[in-house]
Amino acid sequence: MTTFWIFIALVMLVGLMLIWIPHFRQQKLLKTEEAGVRKQTNLELFNERLATLEKELSEELLDQAEFDALKKELEISLLQDIKQASDDSLVNQIKPKTILWPSIMSVCLIVISGYLYQHLGAFENIETAQQPANPHAGMDTAQIMMQRVQMMEAQIKAEPENSQLWFSLGHAYVSANQYDKGIAAFDKVIELVGKHAELLGPKATAMYYKAGQQMTPQIQAIIDESLAMDAQDPSTLLLVGMDAFFTADYKKAIASWQTILDSDRADVDRAAIMNAIETANLRMQSETAGMPNDEAHKQVKASATKSVNVTISISAELAAKASPEDTIFIFARATEGPKVPLAATKVSAKSLPITVTLDDSSGMGGDKKLSDATNVEVIAVLSKHGNIKPQAGDLQGKISTVAVGDTANLVLDTQVQ
Q: How far apart are CA 277 and CA 137, in angstroms?
């Protein structure tokens, strides 16, 4: 857009120069020509009078003294005429041409150009053309997820040995509730790169959801194997903590989640984990204080309904443009009133796909809180410059409206131009 307006300004500048440069050049030429004509005339008159004096001297009509006096007077007169022509005559006798016509032509150029652009141009389409069309317009969350899965499946056929793509597809299957396919995808990654804790944890999670969020001996065996490889693996500890929380073993849940925080890993949503620990502490304190169970459930439920859980992923087309060193900024802002951020967090791109929780604990410190809003707009920016403001080359995704207390899937599907 800026380049376009610079081009327009240059065209207008050239047009105005074509009007004004000839005008000023003509004025200069007129003055120069007039001064030259007057000087030439004075010299011709001087030569004629000098010739007359010389003739009179030769005919002895004048003696030498008279001739010298008249010649000197003639020379003084010539000098005075030239000086007067330089100092006064040009100012008094040469009248510069009026600037009225160049001014009128300049105004006409600007007005006519604006009129033609207004009626024949397509300026109203410039901003629209700069914004890439949203490929998910009119689709609900389930349809978006299915489309994403289908696109990744098509890419897998072209790159069957791409372990990173298989890993992302496994998470996509889990998000789409296709747990068997998710488990198979994680097994394929293990087959390609070998067993690692960061692969066993997601596989155990998929099996856990398939079992109806029940811990089985097979799942526990995979968890034990993963923690033996890496005692601080976030994906495995998140599953351990979640299962412990659901079985009311709050100390174990807090210990598992605290281990993640103590590991100082950059690829985890620390705000969401701290919020989960706070919720578990609330449950544990309510039981210790003898608070009725229904009251404890009400407090936990109230805390949950004041947050937004968002699963962040990246489209298959743009997956190659993301780097593990990139940072993802996620923030929610009100859909009504001032568009001020109500909550924000950031994670590392290497943790994709990931689920983050936005609530008051991740607030921006103003007088507006996420818990006060009914609906919010969620925006995620994968930044290659470490700046929350999108810049050229960054990736971006947006959810126009999500109710506070709900969950949503956000796909980074647009590259900023």
A: 37
